[in-house]
Amino acid sequence: MDFLLYLSPLCLVFEAWQLFVAERYLGIKHIEKGIDPRRLGPGEPIAFAWSTAIFAYWLWMILMLIPASGRIQIICMLGVSLLGYSLRRNAGLRWILVILTLEGAIRIGMIISLLGDFWRKL
């Protein structure tokens, strides 16, 4: 259980990285120019690393459901991720960045809350 909690800072860094990448590829500059960044996409190494990190992150969230501590935060993170995915799938290009930003901010808040609970229990 403790090992999974020790991975929380890594997940926090991943969330920040994901927001940075989203802004870079779906940023306001691309939207203003009318460029559809979904057609450009990142290169294969970056796409592979990003996809692998997302799968590892989901695995971490699912495994974090097993211990009793932090279950509420993880359920919220999974719910926000699923809701965000369904909204992004049906949203226009202008709303995708907004949804990604809100989704990431909520997940970052939940990870910080999880780390705070862990810190108080020490």
Descriptive overview:
This protein is an all-alpha fold. It has one domain. It is built from seven helices and no strands. It has helices at 2-6, 8-26, 28-33, 37-40, 44-63, 71-90, 93-121. Helix 6 packs antiparallel against helix 7. The radius of gyration is 16 Å and the shape is elongated. The two termini are 14 Å apart. The model has no long low-confidence stretch (mean pLDDT 84).
Order of helices and strands: HHHHHHH
Number of domains: 1
**Please, what is the average pLDDT?**
84
Question: Helix count?
Answer: 7
- In the predicted model, the low-confidence regions spanning at least 5 consecutive residues are none
How much of the polypeptide forms β-strand, as a percent range? under 5%
| Cα radius of gyration in angstroms | 16 Å
How far is it from the N-terminal to the C-terminal residue, by CA?
Answer: 14 Å
Number of strands: 0
Major sheet: size, sense and barrel closure? none
* Class of secondary structure makeup: mainly alpha
Inertia-based shape: elongated
